[in-house]
Amino acid sequence: MAEEPVAPRVLTQVPGPRTLSTKKELDPIFDSRATQLVIDYEKSYGNYFVDADGNAYLDVYAQIASIPLGYNHPALAAAVQTPKMISALINRPAIGNFPSMDWLSSLEDGILRVCPVGLKQVFTAQSGSEANELAFKAAFMYYRRLQRGEGVEWSDHEIKTAMTNQSPGSPELAILSFTNSFHGRGFGSLSATRSKPVHKMDIPSFKWPQAPFPRLRYPLDEYESENAVEEDSCLQVVQHIIDTWHCPVAGVIVEPIQSEGGDNHASSAFFGRLRALTKKHNIILIVDEVQTGFGATGRFWGHEHWQLSSPPDIVTFSKKAQTAGYFFSDQMLRPDKAYRQFNTWMGDPARVLLCKAIIDVILNQGLVERTAHIGDILYGKLSELAKKHPDKVINLRGKGKGTYIAFDTVNSSALLKKMRTAGINIGSCGVDTIRLRPMLVFDECHGKVSKSSAIAP
């Protein structure tokens, strides 16, 4: 098995000739326009991946924030060789109809060990987009169930109109999301996504409302009064939409930190007031933890920083979990009939088993707490850099949020290229924002690997 390099190793131009030739060969049968590097995963290990040309990169982007424990982690390698995993892979069950005898223990010993406070039920899925789509469905069914009355059966008129996409069987209901949000690329999740036109262009969408997400000034502790005014203004718009939108708002979806839209933050007070609004109007609050979940913010779930008086109604997850789905608590969020939240696989038992192994490592090695500590160190070092180069490291943010750190710069594409040439793989988001998404096994030594990787000259 490979070992983690002690430092980046760049032997060729970036991208190298083998990456470029492989990309060219691939393109006729698989659109490779988004391909950045071709990776040799067998040679990758820990916080480093190795590309097709033999270049080794310190990866602080982690496959779009989805790798929790680094490449080829031995505990995960052991987990995939167990009889349970082999059975789950070769006998992939239609889990809603024919679960395995150990499905209950797989959930209880795995994902339910880390369920958000108050949310004891889970529905498994296959991706973050699907998790959010299913959460929207749950919110809509909940709304109509309350409206119809508990125990009241569907009318013949509802049944007939549902099949022709007309009301009341197909009611006009809405999910409220926020500017610059990203919730996925399915039809429902895409209708709630507001980050970039490239995601949405030419795709029919539900005519759902968006409220402004706070545009805060950083550092947050220096602009508390100004930011409070901004957040109050945004919440007033949320209230106005709830009061005046042409159809009922059944759910509100929000990210603890907007990720694809630019790593935008809001205060705990903002989220607490948003929760109060949704409770007041009996609207389902969906917290999208697809990217913030599983420890990246220095808490297992990003919304734990808010210290809410009552938990969200639904929390969706994916990425670092290596599986997907949503947690919920209210029994009314479980559909009134079977097969209403259903598909062939309803997730993937093999990925649920892998998630259990990930959780074991995270909890046994205290990786969430370590991420909080490492994040403080990284933020401190970047603060020093921002003081030296205020024209290049702008609006540094993420203090106290683990390694979930970002800053704006004058040309993020140029900086990404420069960093990759130095053997550092990093990510961007928003317009010109650089974001750090290191793995939970990132340590102090990884922040000191190369003086040549300095962000600014």
From TrEMBL:
Coiled coil (UniProt feature): none
Keywords: Aminotransferase, Pyridoxal phosphate, Transferase
E.C. number(s) listed in UniProt: 2.6.1.19
Molecular function per GO: 4-aminobutyrate:2-oxoglutarate transaminase activity; pyridoxal phosphate binding
Keyword hit for Acetylation: no
One protein family per Pfam: Aminotran_3
InterPro entries, alphabetized: 4NH2But_aminotransferase_euk, Aminotrans_3, PyrdxlP-dep_Trfase, PyrdxlP-dep_Trfase_major, PyrdxlP-dep_Trfase_small
Family: Belongs to the class-III pyridoxal-phosphate-dependent aminotransferase family.
Protein name per Swiss-Prot or TrEMBL: 4-aminobutyrate aminotransferase
Organism for this UniProt entry: Oidiodendron maius (strain Zn)
